[in-house]
Specification:
The protein is α/β, with parallel strands linked by helices and about 350 residues long. Helices cover about 40% and strands about 15% of the residues. The chain has two domains: about 110 residues, Aspartate Aminotransferase, domain 1, CATH 3.90.1150; about 210 residues, Aspartate Aminotransferase, domain 2 (3-Layer(aba) Sandwich). The site of 4'-deoxy-4'-aminopyridoxal-5'-phosphate has 13 residues, from α4.
Length: about 350
Amino acid sequence: MLSRRLKALKAYKTETTQAKIKLSSNELPYELPGELRSLISQELSKAPLHRYPDPVSQELREVVGDFFGVPPDNIVLGNGSDELIYYLSIAVGEFNQGVYVPVPTFPMYEISADVLGRPKVCVQLDEKFDIDLEGSLESLNLQKAVLAYYSYPNNPTGNLFMRDRIEKLRDRGLFTVVDEAYYNYSGESFISDALTRDDTVVLRTLSKIGLAGIRVGLMIGREEVVEEINKVRLPFNITMPSQIIAKVVLTKGREFIKYSVDRVVAERERLFRELMGMEGVEVFPSRANFLLFRTPFRADEVHSGLVERGVLIRNMSYLPGLDRCLRVSVGKPQENEAFLEALHSTLRELA
Ligand code: PMP
């Protein structure tokens, strides 16, 4: 019999509409350069694909550790950080103990809790999209939680929560997961806490820096925590091709990553200014590789207007507090230009 817990749930839906310009999933807009692709092909052609991959991804953990500046023994790799979110929801506390999530945010935190039947304490962010500390403490008095998830910067609002609010909530006994998927665009981190405290871990991913297709994410934590998560982890969760490709790109592709990230950050600022200047548009400051904005019109109408003009972004208006909001990933300059033009003409048509 299938679980009653799952009856009320819906499968995770991502945007699958086809469009010429795709600015809907916060990927890096730049494809890997030819030299890197050739190196990858060479390495893949030598790979013993009839064998299982290294179950502990030893070499890749060393390379990832060097890239992010942490020892390999403090790292668990996941099939995307999504997998690690599941593992943390399984490993921290008991299934009858609560999970605290400030919302609106990345949906996987709630989904993983729901699948396991864990109670949730979801507290609406304040008007600046920061954590409502008072409201959260009140809610946590009514319903206890032992695990907290923070998207830092927050997807989809783009801002960094105030550090001391996360710390104050942690003082209440919450095991704290700081999801730094957009770290390369924000530069702000809880890594030093993750390496020194038993109640804090950091998540990072390669998905936002050019490798969304190979599904590699990482958790950084103290060795004692890493050991426990490894008991939950599936043995061969990082495929051999993923291990090979990630190793090549994180050793030989560093310049490409840095150059691309710098360009995206510069474009984010330009796009922000352009949206600020657009009549009727309210745009929110971002430390990530996307921007959230609100228009006077229904978000599904704006979304379809853009799709008709060949540009796909994400409708965020279904999330609590994000009425009439959409999220656009920062693309290449010419993609951002096409988006701005399409938005301009869509808004004119709807007015
Ligand atoms: N965390 C956040 C905050 C995200 O926005 C995303 C992707 N949209 C993820 C995690 C998932 O990353 P991955 O591709 O590593 O599973």
